[in-house]
Amino acid sequence: QVQLVESGGGSVQAGGALRLSCTASGVTFSRSATAWFRQAPGKGREFVAHIRASSTNTYYADSVKGRFTISRDSAKNTVYLQMSSLQPEDTAVYYCATNPYVILSAIRREDQYHHWGQGTQVTVSS
Prior knowledge:
Blueprint: E1 3-7, E2 10-13, E3 18-25, E4 33-39, E5 45-51, E6 58-60, E7 68-73, E8 78-83, E9 92-99, E10 115-116, E11 120-125
Parallel strand pairs: 2-11
Antiparallel strand pairs: 1-3, 3-8, 4-5, 4-9, 5-6, 7-8, 9-10, 9-11
């Protein structure tokens, strides 16, 4: 059974940084496509970042490009989301999601990911 557990969320002031972690059991991240999504209050879930299964190629939403970095530690079977220059509009619940394979053209679609974590809250105050 696959289980994803996010951690690292919290409250920060604008301009601050946080690092989110997603630790997996029942799946090997180095063999799975993994993404971070987020959902702000009253809004739908949106794509944030993706890391390919068998490489370190990464992709980002325009809104976070240059500020967020997704990475993977295969030894710890953990995917990270390093967030810097945080802004109030980054406030959301952040979810990690994974699937054995996601075609490149569909990495921003949440329906492409079969396994999801429970989410971790990030709150950025101005």
